[in-house]
Structure formats: structure tokens, C-alpha cells
């Protein structure tokens, strides 16, 4: 049964951090969808989100009525957005189930609200249902490497926020989801080895290194 935020106080196991990271990176590379234990939660489908669909997503486009789509601002022709109704719900959500689940957009396949606690970021204020869900996730850190990797993602997110003004214009997204994803993508630059123990630990890269990493993603 969808919980939709009704049973919203208890912790939810988010899995071992390194295992989650492996999955998340595969999803971001488009190798597979995100394997999120949603447990019936539909917060991300009911939070007034515009869902991007790329021109290469022919299967999805053939399952969404054209009348529900409109051109995506600032993107090349063919990129479209799927909007939401007056209650903030995706029109493809029927009886709290995605009616095109097997054909859902890439953006939905890769969305994982565990990215917020992974990066130590809060959810944008206008998405309270997602925020409530994201606050419940608890990662496990069975090894020091798990903890160090998690710390590195948080350090990357904090660095990006702190240095947004000195990084190239537009390099640091204002949107919390995109910022969290960027922190995941950049975090290796914040991982190093302790000189004494050889254990994984958090390091702060120089500005040049961060800019090079950012440049690879533009
Ligand atoms: S297309 Fe499906 S998964 Fe995506 S937001 Fe709509 S209902 Fe949710």
C-alpha cells in the first residue's frame, strides 16, 4: 500500500553506502534504472515536478499523450516536459501507480531521493513530501571505506555550495537535486588516503582540480 508520507516518522534502511554509490553511478550512466525501495511512496510523482523527456526516449514518448507535453525551455528542439495537475500530481499517476511504469521517462528511472541524505542536503522547500521521505533514509557504513566515501560526497556538496561564487558561472546548480547529483559525480576528488594508516579519508582538492572535474561534465 502506498504510504505517501502517512507513516512518515520511522527510519528507513538506505543500504550500505558504497553499494548504493555503485548502483547510483550505474543509473547516472544510463546502464540501468535506480533500484529504490519506494515501498509504495509516490512523493516524487506528486510534488509538482516537471519531468524531462529527451528526444531519444521514443518508447516513453509513444506512451504519453502529446497534449500533456510541452517544449522544455532552454533545451534544443525535441526535448519536452511532462507537467502536473492542479494538485501537483503527474497525470500518468493513476490510483497511486505509474500507469506507464515499464515505459516511464529516464528522469523517473534514475530519480533516487536517497541522494539528498547522501550529499547531506535538504530538499527544496516546495517539495515537502520528498523532504519528509528523504529525511527518513539511514545509510549503513559497515567499513571505514563506506564512511569515508559518504563523507567525501558530503564534503563535495559543501565545497560546491561554499565556493559557488568563485567557480565558473552556472557550474553549481541552484536546484538541490542537481547539486546532490553533482556532488556524487565529483566526490572521488574529495577522497584520498591517510598518509599514516593508508585508510581512505576525506581530502580537499585544489580549485584547479575541482574546475577540471567540473569541466568534464559540461
Ligand atoms: S511518469 Fe510515472 S514515475 Fe514518472 S512522475 Fe509520472 S507517475 Fe511518477
Q: Describe it for me?
A:
With 218 residues, this protein is of the alpha+beta class. The protein folds into two domains: 12-135, no CATH class; 142-216, no CATH class. The chain is built from eight helices and nine strands. It has helices at 17-28, 58-61, 106-110, 115-119, 128-136, 144-162, 176-186, 207-216, and strands at residues 12-16, 51-53, 69-71, 80-82, 93-94, 97-98, 137-140, 191-193, 200-202. The protein has a three-stranded antiparallel sheet. Strands 1-7 form a two-stranded parallel sheet. A two-stranded antiparallel sheet has the order 5-6. The radius of gyration is 18 Å and the shape is globular. Bound molecules: iron/sulfur cluster (SF4). Iron/sulfur cluster is lined by residues 45, 51, 90, 92-93, 98, 100, 104-105, 108.
Q: What's the β-strand tally?
A: 9
How are the strands ordered across the major sheet? 2-4-3
Q: Which small-molecule ligands are present, each listed once?
A: iron/sulfur cluster
Total number of domains: 2
Distance between the termini: 41 Å
Order of helices and strands: EHEHEEEEHHHEHHEEH
Mean model confidence by pLDDT: 92
How much helical structure, as a percent, in the residues?
A: 25-40%
What is the tally of helical segments?
Answer: 8
Q: How does the helix and strand content classify structurally?
A: alpha+beta
What's the SSE blueprint?
Blueprint: E1 12-16, H1 17-28, E2 51-53, H2 58-61, E3 69-71, E4 80-82, E5 93-94, E6 97-98, H3 106-110, H4 115-119, H5 128-136, E7 137-140, H6 144-162, H7 176-186, E8 191-193, E9 200-202, H8 207-216
Parallel strand pairs: 1-7
Antiparallel strand pairs: 2-4, 3-4, 5-6, 8-9
The structure holds iron/sulfur cluster.
The site of iron/sulfur cluster has 10 residues, from loops.
Amino acid at each position: 500500500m502506498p504510504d505517501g508520507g502517512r507513516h512518515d516518522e520511522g527510519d528507513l534502511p538506505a543500504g550500505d553506502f558504497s553499494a548504493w554509490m555503485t548502483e547510483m553511478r550505474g543509473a547516472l550512466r544510463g546502464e540501468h534504472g535506480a533500484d529504490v525501495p519506494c515501498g509504495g511512496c509516490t512523493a516524487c510523482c506528486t510534488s509538482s515536478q516537471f519531468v524531462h523527456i529527451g528526444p531519444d526516449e521514443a518508447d516513453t514518448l509513444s506512451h504519453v499523450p502529446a497534449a500533456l507535453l510541452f517544449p522544455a525551455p532552454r533545451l534544443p528542439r525535441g526535448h519536452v516536459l511532462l507537467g502536473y495537475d492542479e494538485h501537483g500530481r503527474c497525470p500518468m499517476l493513476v490510483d497511486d501507480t505509474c500507469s506507464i511504469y515499464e515505459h516511464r521517462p529516464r528522469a523517473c528511472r534514475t530519480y533516487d531521493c536517497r541522494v539528498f541524505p547522501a550529499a547531506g542536503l535538504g530538499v527544496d522547500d516546495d517539495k515537502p513530501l520528498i523532504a519528509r521521505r528523504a529525511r527518513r533514509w539511514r545509510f549503513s557504513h559497515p567499513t571505514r571505506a563506506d564512511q569515508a566515501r559518504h563523507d567525501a560526497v558530503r564534503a563535495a556538496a559543501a565545497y560546491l555550495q561554499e565556493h559557488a561564487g568563485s567557480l565558473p558561472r552556472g557550474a553549481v546548480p541552484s536546484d538541490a537535486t542537481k547539486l546532490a547529483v553533482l556532488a556524487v559525480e565529483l566526490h572521488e576528488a574529495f577522497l584520498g588516503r591517510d598518509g599514516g594508516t593508508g585508510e581512505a579519508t576525506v581530502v580537499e582538492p585544489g580549485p584547479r582540480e575541482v574546475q577540471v572535474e567540473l569541466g568534464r561534465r559540461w
